[in-house]
Each structure stands twice: as structure tokens, then as C-alpha cells.
């Protein structure tokens, strides 16, 4: 039986910080649209308060999460314990996109370690926090974080990365708006960032 809690208390925040991966679920309003689940990794998530989380969203091939949040704001973030005692935690809430052109972006970005190509930060006001047993989740060992994103950014020109974002991040697979041209132009490339995210 799952249990809810009123807030992300310090013990829960500490557990979240130790998880190597989390999953994000969103959906468009249209019943004909595609539901999306995205895995996220690396040191890209922060608990900002008892009912607020945020993660750094790196440049990628899709824009589903951002597009869905801009349309309707609904989101769930889930963690699974792959080591230690079994546990699943879900935070349901309303998400907000703070893209690279947003005046708030720089202050939020400072809360994270350097990242090769941060296109946005996703803030979530959490409305429901629920845990469940996690007995069905297998134990797995973390081998290493992947360095593919940082390696790609190290080799590609700024123009190539911005062109890639223009080609792949303007709209969702259902045609919902993604990143505006000015937000894509505002993405800054950090080739000193050694860690890569998903």
C-alpha cells in the first residue's frame, strides 16, 4: 500500500540526491497525442523546497516534456531505488519551463554544476508526494555516467548545436510548440563541463 507525505522532508531530499536516475512523465491534452516518459541522469536535479524540485534540461533530440508543460503543466517525477532498501517515490505537480532566454535562467543555473548544453530548467511545484514499496524493481549497480553528450559538444561547433536544436526542438512529435528561436539562440555551450546528462 502506497503512502503519501506532506512534504519533501530532509531525509527524503537526501534519498533523492543519492539516486542516479529519475523518470519524468507528461502528456498532451489531446487523447490522440503521445504520452511521454523520459529518463534523466547525472547531477541534474535539486530539491529547492519542501514542495519544489527543479532539474537542468540538456539539449536533446526531443522536446516532449517542455512542449507538454507549456500546454498544460501536468507532470510526475519518479525515482526507484536500484540499491539499498526497495522504494519508489512519485512527485505529481505542475511544471514550469524556464528556458535559456528567461531572465530567471542564470540564477537557477548557478545551482547546478557546469553542463555542456543546458537548454532549460524545469521547475515543479509538487502537489502530491507518494511512495510505494518498489519490490518489483531489480537491484542494479551503477557502472558509470555516460560522457556522450559532453564528447559531442566538445567536437561540434556552436552553430552546429544551435542548428540541431532548431531542427529538433521547435515542436513536439504532436506539433506542440517547443523552444522558441530566441530560447535556442540563448543556449550557451560550455565545453569545460565534463559531465553529461540524458
Report what the structure shows.
This protein has 198 residues and is α+β, with helices and mostly antiparallel strands. It has a single domain (3-186), classed as Pnp Oxidase, Chain A (Roll), CATH 2.30.110.10. The chain has six helices and eight strands, in the order βαββββαββαβααα. The protein has helices spanning 10-18, 64-72, 105-109, 148-155, 158-168, 181-186; strands spanning 3-5, 21-26, 36-41, 45-49, 52-58, 74-80, 88-99, 118-132. Strands 1, 2, 3, 4, 5, 6, 7 and 8 form an eight-stranded antiparallel beta sheet that branches. The longest helix is centred in the C-terminal third of the chain and has 11 residues, at 158-168. It is globular and about 45 Å long.
The average pLDDT value, as a whole number, equals 94
CATH superfamily: Electron Transport, Fmn-binding Protein, Chain A
The secondary structure category is alpha+beta
Largest sheet: 8 strands, antiparallel
- Structurally, the number of domains stands at 1
Number of strands: 8
**What overall form do the CA principal axes indicate?**
globular
Itemize the secondary structure elements and their pairings:
Layout: E1 3-5, H1 10-18, E2 21-26, E3 36-41, E4 45-49, E5 52-58, H2 64-72, E6 74-80, E7 88-99, H3 105-109, E8 118-132, H4 148-155, H5 158-168, H6 181-186
Antiparallel strand pairs: 1-8, 2-3, 2-6, 4-5, 5-8, 6-7, 7-8
Task: Provide a short characterization of the protein structure.
The chain is of the alpha+beta class. It is built from six helices and eight strands.
